[in-house]
Amino acid sequence: MLNENNEIWMNGEFVPAERAVVPFLNNTLHYGIGFFEGLRAYQTDRGVQIFRLRDHIRRLFESIKIGGVVPLRFSEDEISEATRETVRRNRLGDAYIRPLAYFQGDHLGMSITQGELKIGIAAWNWPSLFDEAAIRRGLSVCVSSFSRMSHNAFLLKAKACGNYVNSLYAHHEAVTNGYDETVLLDGQGYVSECSGENIFIVKNGAILTPPPATILEGITRDSVMTIARDFGYSVNEGMIARDMLYTADEVFLTGSAAEVNAITSVDRRTIGSGMIGPVTAELRAAFIRTIRGKGTRSVEWCDYI
Ligand SMILES: Cc1ncc(COP(=O)(O)O)c(C=O)c1O
Question: CATH homologous superfamily of domain 132-291?
C-alpha cells in the first residue's frame, strides 16, 4: 500500500514506515480508543495542496476533546505543519493522509486518562476509493442489515477508531453481497450515512441530506453543500426514509477518501435514469475543479504545502 521508502511522522520525527510501530500493550489496540483523520493532497498548477487541512486537524482535536482523553502534546498548528511536512518528505502529489492519535504507556485497562496520547501521520498514493469502472457507471449500494450505532452508545461526532467496527461490518457485508457500498439506517430507521461517507438525494432539483445530529459531519459534505448553494440549489437537511432513496432522481455520496460520486442503484432498484444525474455531475465537476485549485472556493480551502 505504501510507496517504497515511505516515512511516517511519529511524535515529532520521521521514521521509515516499517519502524513506525507501537507497543502491543496499549488501550487503542485493545479497546479502540484512538482518534484519526482522513484527508487528501492534490497536485494543482500552483503545486501540491492539502484540501481543507485546518478543518481536518480541527476535527481531529475536536474528536480528542469529545473523547475526553488526555491531551496531545502538540498544537493544531504543529500537527498541520507536520501533515504538510509528511507530504513534502514523501514527495507526494495526489495522496491520502492519515493522522492517528493513539495511546501508549504502561497502563492497559479501563481508563481514558492514563497513559500518553501519541500521534503518527502517514501519507501515500491512493488514487481512488472506488475503482474507475464503478465511478463511471455509478455506485451500487444496499441498505445495511447493521444499524448505525446510537449516538448515546458511541460518540459519533468523534472520528474514533472503535466507531469503525460498525462501519467495517456493514461495508464487509455489502461488498460480500456484490455491492460497492452500503447505507446505514439509524436507530429510528432513517437514513444516516454510508460506512465512510455522507449521503445526499436530489428530488425535483432540490438537494436533501440527513441532519447532523447522528452522523459524522463530513468536510466534503460541507464543501458540496456550500458549492451547491453557491450555484443556487436549494440544499436542506432532513429525515430520509429508505424508500425516499428508491424514488430519488439522483443519489450521491461524499467523503475525503470517496470524493463525490453518484449512486445509481440502491437495493437493486435503479435510481433515476440509472446514469450519473445532471446535478451530481455538476457538483462532482465543481468539486474536482475546487480540489485542483480552479474553483471559486479554492482560495479558502486549498492549503498549499
Ligand atoms: C462515517 C463517516 N461519515 C462521513 C465521512 C465523510 O467525512 P469527510 O468528508 O470529512 O471525509 C467519513 C469519512 O471521514 C466517515 O468515516
Answer: D-amino Acid Aminotransferase, subunit A, domain 2 (3.20.10.10)
Pull the grid cell for residue 74: 502538540
What percent of the chain clears pLDDT 70, i.e. is strictly above it?
A: 100
Q: Identify the three-state secondary structure at position 187.
A: coil
- CA of 107 from ligand 1 middle (Å) equals 31
Q: Is 166 in the pocket of ligand 1 (CB under 6 A)?
A: no
What fold does the segment set 7-124 form as a domain? D-amino Acid Aminotransferase; Chain A, domain 1 (3.30.470)
Query: Given ligand 1 and candidates 58, 216, 259, 291, which is best to mutate, with the most ligand atoms within 8 Å of its CB?
Result: 216
Distance, CA of 273 to CA of 82 (rounded, Å) = 45
The answer to whether residue 157 is catalytic is: no
Amino acid letter at 109?
Answer: G
Give the pLDDT score at 113: 85
User: DSSP code of 268?
Assistant: T
Report the share of the chain in percent with pLDDT over 90. 90
Alpha carbon of 249 to ligand 1 centroid (Å) = 23
